[in-house]
Amino acid sequence: MKGTAYLVVWWMSQVPYAAVFDNQVAAEAAASVRNALMVTVSGKDAQIDSVHDWYRRDEDGQPMSAEWRNILGQLQVALTTKKPPALKAAGA
């Protein structure tokens, strides 16, 4: 991969959609309009640099970092700082 790419993921009528952009401004505009997730990817090994949730905004209107949540929706960890915890089978 050359440079940085931006993956924008959104849902409409319970169907997931995705688009890849080379231009950050275009990706941010698409994410903002759709309240989407924007994943910043770079490097030859497709390293994920950041994941921003354009549905969740801070007090200044800027998108917040996406967060990992378990099946019940309880907050676990931020996606860009740690790997998600391993899920255990019920009753284990």
What's this entry about, in short?
With 92 residues, this protein is mainly β.
Question: How would you portray this structure in words?
Answer:
This protein has a five-stranded antiparallel β-sheet with strand order 2-1-3-4-5, with helices on one face. A two-stranded antiparallel sheet has the order 6-7. Strand 4 and strand 5 form a beta hairpin. The protein has one domain. With 92 residues, it is mainly beta.
- Kindly state the percentage of residues in helix: 10-25%
The H/E string reads EEHEEEEE
Strand segment tally: 7
> How many separate structural domains?
1
Q: Spans of 5+ residues with little confidence (pLDDT < 50)?
A: none
Q: Compute the gyration radius: what is it? A: 15 Å
Structural class: mainly beta
Mean pLDDT: 76
Name the beta content range.
over 45%
Number of helices: 1
Q: Which outline best applies?
A: globular
Rounded to the nearest angstrom, the distance between the terminal CA atoms is 41 Å
